[in-house]
Amino acid sequence: MDKNGTKTTTTRVFKSGNSQAVRIPAEMAFARNDIELTISRSGDIITIMPFKQDLKKMVERLRALPKPSSIEKREPIEPRDIGQD
Is residue 58 situated within a structural domain? Predict the structure, then answer.
């Protein structure tokens, strides 16, 4: 691990069907196996990270959820000024 906390290891590229694949060593593996990943490339650098949905798609998915049968009314909460305790 370097001074920035970055782990580095060496692995090999191999063929998987018509694609190239890379084995992620156990010490660098993601905690779960059911996550989607985003892969980006800039020159010779390939970055793999957990997929994050864009906001527009997330709002579409929320709007597609079933509507509640009733909505509970609540009194608004007034924000208090910081530093006045």
Answer: yes
Residue 4 lies inside a defined structural domain of this protein: no
Query: Is the residue at 69 inside a domain?
Result: no
User: Could you tell me the pTM of the whole model?
Assistant: 0.51
DSSP 21-67: EEPPPGGG--S-SS--EEEEEETTEEEEEE----HHHHHHHHHTSPP
Q: How many angstroms separate the CA atoms of 73 and 58, rounded? A: 25
In-domain check, residue 81: no
How many domains does the chain fold into?
1
Residue 39's domain spans which residues? 13-63
Quickly tell me which residue has 């691990």 as its tokens.
1
The tens place of each residue's pLDDT in the chain, 85 residues long, gives 777 778 888 889 999 999 999 998 888 888 888 888 989 999 999 988 888 878 888 888 889 988 888 888 888 888 888 765 5
